[in-house]
């Protein structure tokens, strides 16, 4: 064994303690550190030849790189839809690395059963029935890709084509219908050989909505004259957290032949709260569902879950035929369910957070974030330099400059907010107007944080 490696092994507990102490200092100062990094990154260093040991690696990281990491785990990072990491989920994530389980197969470990237990808990959390099975993946993009891949195989089943063997080209043109699809949907269509150009955008409801017009969707399905299709419904759009009428869309399956995939990346968490649960009424009727967990569940990146009613087709798409991996009989190993063979135990941080805080704890995070988003929205509405682009429906505030909201001026506003170190928001375009989004999904965010964000927005827009 290399002597430096042997030395680290001999004092492994002390090395972990050093990492723990450094992490604890960083987390303790997270609420006050600059939310976005300023200045250029350091020049690239040469590859070390012999290495300096674990303690030196921690010290070098602390000196060269840590100062430029964002405060994305903190309470005023409102860009994208970014959660933090609850204390219990961080503990679970550290133990995931310590145990370093290979989730490609059972492998003499109970780890796969822990993942199945966690998936079952999440299924219950989101109001899905036992007909839905699931697996952990890296994020919403992977989850949407898996759901559409199973839908593609279902199209083959309907058309008498074995897509997993014959390829997507054997299907001929595929129709994917959606009102306000997330950008990961056309990306998935590209990966799956369906093609980005096969996305058919369906008209939305009037009145500044991002929800699909179900009557228009029915008309589009009727034009297919019986040819099966894929419908991507949204449970929480990115700009305004609008929800398609899932129950009404599912009812169309009585008359039309389509696979219903629901992108509930963060909107699915509405199911936790009695006040908002009606927004996801009908989610259980979906053929496949995407939910992202490093958003509102507040577990470390990267973690999401996918659900489907057709595990048989999922295995058909993703099974790995090799003698050393075993056949996907009975309860299939997870390597037969997702694109990855090598799989980290992503379920463990989620398991820790669910055990530690339960349904009630995570419901409180959702309800508090929604209340704070509405508080920020009301504050923005009262500022002379800003205006809302849409009502605050759940946890995202979509807004713009009151006058002359050009892309350049919006970019300058975003840079000013980030440069203050107080907050971070991301740009968007809504209804043809350049604007900004503030997304509340962090478990730490408080009223005081919201007031600080409002203060920097007022100063930057005046």
Automatic annotation (TrEMBL):
Keywords: Decarboxylase, Lyase, Pyridoxal phosphate. One of its GO terms (molecular function) is pyridoxal phosphate binding. This is Amino acid decarboxylase. The lineage of its organism: Bacteria, Bacillati, Actinomycetota, Actinomycetes, Kitasatosporales. GO terms for biological process: carboxylic acid metabolic process. Belongs to the group II decarboxylase family. InterPro entries: Aromatic_deC, PyrdxlP-dep_de-COase, PyrdxlP-dep_Trfase, PyrdxlP-dep_Trfase_major, PyrdxlP-dep_Trfase_small, Pyridoxal-P_BS. It comes from the Bacteria. Its cofactor is pyridoxal 5'-phosphate.
């Amino acid at each position: 064994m290399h002597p430096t490696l042997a030395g680290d092994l001999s004092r492994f507990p002390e090395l972990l303690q050093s990492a723990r102490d450094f992490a604890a200092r960083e987390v303790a100062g997270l609420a006050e550190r600059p939310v976005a990094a300023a200045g250029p990154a350091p020049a690239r260093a040469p590859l070390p030849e012999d290495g300096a040991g674990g303690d030196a690696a921690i010290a070098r990281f602390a000196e060269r790189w840590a100062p430029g990491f964002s405060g994305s785990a903190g309470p005023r990072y409102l860009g994208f839809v970014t959660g933090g990491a609850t204390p219990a989920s961080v503990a679970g994530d550290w133990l995931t690395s310590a145990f370093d389980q290979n989730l490609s197969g059972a492998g003499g470990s109970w780890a796969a059963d822990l993942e199945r237990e966690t998936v079952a808990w999440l299924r219950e959390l989101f109001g899905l029935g036992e007909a839905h099975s699931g697996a952990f993946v890296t994020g919403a993009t992977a989850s949407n890709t898996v759901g559409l891949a199973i839908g593609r195989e279902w199209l083959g089943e309907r058309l008498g084509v074995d897509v997993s063997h014959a390829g997507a080209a054997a299907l001929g043109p595929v129709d994917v219908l959606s009102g306000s699809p997330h950008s990961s949907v056309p990306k998935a269509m590209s990966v799956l050989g369906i093609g980005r150009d096969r996305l058919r955008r369906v008209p939305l409801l009037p009145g500044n909505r991002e929800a699909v017009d179900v009557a228009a969707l029915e008309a589009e399905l009727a034009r297919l004259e019986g040819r099966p299709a894929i419908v991507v419904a949204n449970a929480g759009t990115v700009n305004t957290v609008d929800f398609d009428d899932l129950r009404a869309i599912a009812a169309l399956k009585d008359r039309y032949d389509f696979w219903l995939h629901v992108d509930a990346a963060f909107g699915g968490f509405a199911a936790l709260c009695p006040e908002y649960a009606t927004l996801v009424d009908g989610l259980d009727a979906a053929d496949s569902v995407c939910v992202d967990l490093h958003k509102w569940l507040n577990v470390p990146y990267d973690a999401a879950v996918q659900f489907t009613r057709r595990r048989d087709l999922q295995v058909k798409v993703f099974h790995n035929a090799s003698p050393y991996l075993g056949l996907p009989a009975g309860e299939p190993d997870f390597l037969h369910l997702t694109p990855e063979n090598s799989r980290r135990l992503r379920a463990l941080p989620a398991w820790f957070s669910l055990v530690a805080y339960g349904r009630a704890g995570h419901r409180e995070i959702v309800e508090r974030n929604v209340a704070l988003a509405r508080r920020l929205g009301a504050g923005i509405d009262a500022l002379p330099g800003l205006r809302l682009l849409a009502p605050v429906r759940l946890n995202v505030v979509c807004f713009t400059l009151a006058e002359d909201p050009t892309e350049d001026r919006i970019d300058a506003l975003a840079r000013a907010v980030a440069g203050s170190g107080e907050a971070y928001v991301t740009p968007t375009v809504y209804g043809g107007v350049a604007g900004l989004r503030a997304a509340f999904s962090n478990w730490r965010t408080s009223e005081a944080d919201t007031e600080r964000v409002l203060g920097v927005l007022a100063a930057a827009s005046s």
